[in-house]
Specification:
- The protein is mainly alpha-helical and 70 residues long.
- Helix content is 74%, strand content 0%.
- 16% of the residues are buried.
């Protein structure tokens, strides 16, 4: 649990700073999914849609798929 909290903090910071690294978004979304914090995945999808990057499509697709695995 403590490690997950640390990972969420670091990954959230990376996303907030405009990272377009898909692994940051996907791992963060997986951690939110494990905690059943689905609204936070929706916010990640919104954030990913604002990216000006080639990885935007992949990130939004994978996060949406994860969100639909309820």
């Amino acid at each position: 649990e403590g490690r997950d909290d640390d990972a969420i903090s670091v990954l959230s910071y990376a996303v907030e700073q405009g990272s377009d690294v898909s692994a940051s978004f996907i791992l963060l979304a997986q951690l939110y999914h494990e905690r059943n914090e689905l609204s936070k995945i929706n916010r990640l999808i919104d954030r990913a849609e604002q990216l000006n990057s080639l990885s935007k499509i992949r990130i939004t697709r994978e996060l949406t798929e994860l969100l639909n695995k309820v």
